[in-house]
């Protein structure tokens, strides 16, 4: 997959350590937080970076859903969803056939990090 190969090259060139799992997903840390980059063998132009399991839902499901609704409505390209009562964030987009990863990967990582912080602020600001 073109995009995941380019991400591996970017991570290596920027000095980030990363691992590739059996599915070809790339795991790495950025600013102390865990990320995955995945591709789609059926769609070479699909690009996805995931920030998995950032928050465990407890008795505040409605508050978390309201927080992600507010933040995702206000932030560009940010997607939030639940997996086994854990909140995940992602950016999913289409890139051209020869993307310049340098043009967008750090912006995506910074958007995910900012989304994480804003959602936490929304969840805990009124408690």
**Beta fraction:** 25-35%
DSSP strand tally: 6
Order of helices and strands: HEEEEHEEH
How is the largest sheet built, in terms of strand order?
1-2-3-4-6-5
Label the structural class. alpha+beta
Give the low-pLDDT segments.
Answer: none
Measure the end-to-end span: 44 Å
Largest sheet: 6 strands, antiparallel
Provide mean pLDDT, rounded. Answer: 90
Number of helices: 3
- Outline type: elongated
* Cα gyration radius (Å): 15 Å
Helix content: 25-40%
What topology does this entry show?
Blueprint (H helix, E strand, L loop, with lengths): L1 H13 L3 E3 L5 E5 L2 E6 L7 E11 L4 H14 L3 E6 L2 E9 L10 H20 L3
Helix pairs in contact: 2-3
Q: Your description of this structure?
A:
The protein has 127 residues and is of the alpha+beta class. The chain has three helices and six strands, in the order αββββαββα. The protein has helices spanning 2-14, 61-74, 105-124; strands spanning 18-20, 26-30, 33-38, 46-56, 78-83, 86-94. The chain has a six-stranded antiparallel β-sheet with strand order 1-2-3-4-6-5. Strand 3 (33-38) and strand 4 form a beta hairpin. Helix 2 (61-74) packs across helix 3.
């Amino acid at each position: 997959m073109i995009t995941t190969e380019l991400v591996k090259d970017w991570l290596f060139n920027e000095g980030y350590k990363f691992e590739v799992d059996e599915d070809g997903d790339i795991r790495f840390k950025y600013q102390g937080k865990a990320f995955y980059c995945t591709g789609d063998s059926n769609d070479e132009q699909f690009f996805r970076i995931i920030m998995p399991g950032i928050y465990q839902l407890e008795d505040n499901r409605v508050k978390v859903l309201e927080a992600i609704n507010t933040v995702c409505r206000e932030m560009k390209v940010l997607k939030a969803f639940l997996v086994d009562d854990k909140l995940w964030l992602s950016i999913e987009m289409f890139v051209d056939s020869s993307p310049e990863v340098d043009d967008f990967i750090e912006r995506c990582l910074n958007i995910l990090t900012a989304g994480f912080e804003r959602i936490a602020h929304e969840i805990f600001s009124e408690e």
